[in-house]
Inverse folding.
């Protein structure tokens, strides 16, 4: 079975440009998470969705960041305008509801973003 | 609030054992353990639910002390492939997202 698929794998762009990161969760998973990883801040949650609905976006750093999930098989994270401090590895993860039991989160390979 | 992991780093020889701890100030529903190798995504190892369960994954096992809100990851007879950074992720009731610790860098040498 295919895992979580993220694109692009690497993105280098100049400050001020719009950046769009994409994620395809594992088929059948109803939770989708966006995380950001940096040396300074570690692995931190940005936003998560349940059944395509945003549940918690308290980790989104600023209004420059936005995320959507138009259907069960696709999500985007957009940064506009981008700044050098947005440089990081962005991970998407998905999981099942679990019927009352905790379920593992499965991570994509990540997008390494560099803002010059 | 981020869980606290200790130690921050550990170096082992092949065959030696190690323990990694994860403590939280919050009442937890579950603790997840992941391993991440350099340049790769975190890979799921196991979940511990409140109730003090101990789970195993090959020679890696873990426990969860609900009273102390602390989980420990045990690596026995370490192998070179165990090298990487280990993260605990904590989950509270009603919120599915994980809050990750800062990680423990483990290096196994021949």
């Amino acid at each position: 079975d295919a895992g979580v698929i993220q694109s692009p794998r690497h993105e280098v762009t100049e400050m001020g440009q719009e950046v769009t990161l994409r994620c395809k969760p594992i088929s059948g998973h109803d939770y989708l998470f966006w995380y950001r990883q940096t040396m300074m801040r570690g692995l931190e949650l940005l936003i998560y969705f349940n059944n395509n609905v945003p549940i918690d976006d308290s980790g989104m750093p600023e209004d420059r960041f936005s995320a959507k999930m138009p259907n069960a098989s696709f999500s985007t994270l957009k940064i506009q305008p981008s700044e050098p401090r947005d440089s990081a590895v962005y991970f998407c993860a998905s999981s099942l509801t679990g019927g009352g039991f905790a379920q593992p989160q499965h991570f994509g390979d990540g997008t390494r973003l560099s803002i010059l | 609030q981020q869980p606290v992991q200790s130690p921050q780093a550990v170096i082992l020889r092949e065959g030696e054992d190690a323990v990694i701890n994860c403590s939280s100030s919050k009442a937890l529903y579950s603790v997840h353990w992941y391993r991440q190798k350099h340049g790769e995504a975190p890979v799921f190892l196991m979940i511990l639910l409140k109730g003090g369960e101990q789970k195993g994954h090959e020679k890696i096992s873990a426990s969860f002390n609900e009273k102390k809100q602390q989980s420990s990851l045990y690596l026995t007879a370490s192998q070179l492939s165990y090298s990487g950074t280990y993260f605990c992720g904590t989950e509270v009731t009603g919120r599915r997202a994980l809050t990750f610790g800062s990680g423990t860098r483990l290096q196994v040498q021949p």
The CA atoms of residues 32 and 68 of chain A lie 11 Å apart. The longest strand of chain A covers residues 42-50. The two ends of chain A are 37 Å apart (CA to CA).
